[in-house]
C-alpha cells in the first residue's frame, strides 16, 4: 500500500467514523415525550441585551403571553451599555405588560458572558432561565424545560430547541434548516447517554446552585454554562419539546459572521474544558466530549485533506478520476443553492469550523450582532 493511499484512508477514516456514529444516533434516537410541570415555581428570566430596541418590547410581551404564570416570573434585563433606547423601552414594557422586572446597566461593555454571570448572580429564585432578546418562547416551552429540569435532582440545566422561521427562502436559510433538522437529535442522543453541552442559548433553564460563573472573555455563554454545570457534578439535557422561535437571516454575509462567531466560541469552550475528558465525568468525559473534540478540531482538517489526497491518488491512474472527485465535492458544496440538503450543509459546516479557528485564537469575545427582527 502506497504512503499516499494509506494517508488518504487514514484522513477519511476519522471523519467517517465520527459522523457514522452521529448518523446512527439521528436515525435511532427517539425524542422524549416531555415532562410538563404541575406546580410552576417562581423563576427569574435573565435577558442580556445590547442595542435591542427593535425587539425588547416584543420579548417582554412574550413572557406575559406564554402559558407560564406571569406572577411567577421576574425578569432581569442586563444591558451591555446599549447606545439606543433598549433600556427605556424595556422599562416601559415591564409596566405595559404587567411583568415583574428590573434592569441592570453595566458600567462598561464586556460581552454576553459577563451579562449572564451578573444576571444569574442577581436572581433571587432557585430556578433561572436565560434567553435572548430576539426570540420568543412557544406557549408551553417553560413548562417542558422546567418540568424536565425538576424531574431529576441530578439535572442541573435544560436547553430548548430552535424552531427556525424563514422569512425569505435563500441558500442560507435552506442550509440552516437542513443543519437544524439533525442538530437537536444529536444533542438528544448525547443527553440520553449523559449530557450535552451544545446548548441553545435562547432557552436554558438551570438550577442556580448548579451554576458557576463562566469565563468573561472566551467561550460561548451557553456551552460554557453547560460545561461548568457538568463540572459541578450535574447533567445537562436537551429538551426538544421546549421550543423557541428565531428568524434565520437570508443574508449570506450575516450568516457567515453568525456561524463563525458561534463556532469559534464553541471551540473555545471545548478547548478551555478539555480536562473534563476523564472517567470522573462518566460517559460524558469518556465518550461525548472526546467525540465533540474530534468533531470541532480534527474532522474539519482531515475532511478537506482527505478530499485532496483522494483526488491526487486517483489522478495517478487517470486525471479524469481526480477531477471527478473535485467536481463531485464542488457540486455537493453548491447544491444547497438549488435545494437544501444535509450534505451541502455538512460541508459548509466544516468550512465554518475551519475559519472559526482563526477567531478562536484571537480571543475575540465582543461581536457585532446580526440584524434584529421581531418574531
TrEMBL record:
Superkingdom assignment: Archaea
Spans traversing the lipid bilayer: 6-28, 293-313, 319-338
SUPFAM superfamilies: Nucleotide-diphospho-sugar transferases
Coiled-coil regions, chain positions: none
GO MF annotation: an example: glycosyltransferase activity
UniProt entry keywords in alphabetical sequence: Glycosyltransferase, Membrane, Transferase, Transmembrane, Transmembrane helix
A Pfam short name: Glycos_transf_2
Domain Glycosyltransferase 2-like: 44-175
Stored PANTHER family: POLY-BETA-1,6-N-ACETYL-D-GLUCOSAMINE SYNTHASE (PTHR43630:SF1)
Name of protein: Glycosyl transferase family 2
Source organism of this protein record: Methanohalobium evestigatum (strain ATCC BAA-1072 / DSM 3721 / NBRC 107634 / OCM 161 / Z-7303)
